[in-house]
Specification:
The chain is built from 3 helices and no strands. With 130 residues, it is mainly alpha-helical. The N and C termini lie far apart (67 Å). Residues 1-17 form the signal peptide.
Length: 130
Amino acid sequence: MLSKSTILFSLFAVATAFAPSRPAFGARSATSLFSSPYGKYDEKLWDMTAKLDVYNAWNPAAPRSPQNFNPFETFEGNSPDASGFYPGEGRYKDPIRPDVNFTTMMEERKILEDIAANPKAAPGCPGCRS
């Protein structure tokens, strides 16, 4: 009799261990409708127009976040994705890149040289990668 009750109890324990848990009646779960762990251009084309939009909105005095980063800043030779994460970081996502040709690269080079000549912030500011 003892072995039958032990087997029955074991089967019940195994069955309840894999059953989906249900919240208590009336319990609420925390949801966030407006905060995203990724940036404005996540899953969108990450071209020079998008980078300039993010750069113009970047506030170097505010802490770095997926919505506040310098898209032209490099770290160990790598550029950030559309949310400011670098390869090797846990939330890095390979961005959707545009087609590129030599003419486009030369136009973008002029923009990058202008940005380098007139930096928006000094290295080490709260909005920079440290």
